[in-house]
Amino acid sequence: MNLDPGLIRIRREGSDGGHNGLKSIIQQIGTQRFARIRIGVGRPQGCGGYAKYVLSSLPTDERQLVQSAVARVADAAEVVVRDGVDMAMNRFN
To answer: What are 2-53's pLDDT values in tens digits?
Structure first.
């Protein structure tokens, strides 16, 4: 939610940033030292809470941005595996 819809960010490592899924992964593997690729979905406008926002359908005008980002993330993940995190960060961030 800290990235605008459709933006992607690759990081070498980091904290869970309040994300329960990442918190669980970190707990299970015992380290924060793993690459991650984030896709921006933006922040909710008005009330309703963060959980409701991220679990609801994307607004139509943002859906294409995020779908395009998913395709770029697939390419970025391939670069991470083939050429390393630094190369992927230089190319996609």
So the answer is: 788 889 999 999 888 888 889 999 999 999 999 999 988 877 776 567 777 7
> Does any domain span residue 1?
no
Q: What is the CATH number of the domain that holds 17?
A: 3.40.50.1470
Alpha helix stretches (DSSP H) within the chain: 20-29, 50-55, 60-83, 85-92
Burial classification of residue 9, based on how many CB atoms lie within 10 Å of its CB (0-12 exposed, 13-18 middle, 19 or more buried): middle
Tokens found for residue 50: 């963060």
65 belongs to a structural domain: yes
Residue showing tokens 């922040």 = 43
In a domain, 2, yes or no: no
Out of 55-59, 70-74, 77-81, pick the least confident: 55-59
pLDDT of residue 36: 92
**Domain range enclosing 35:** 8-92
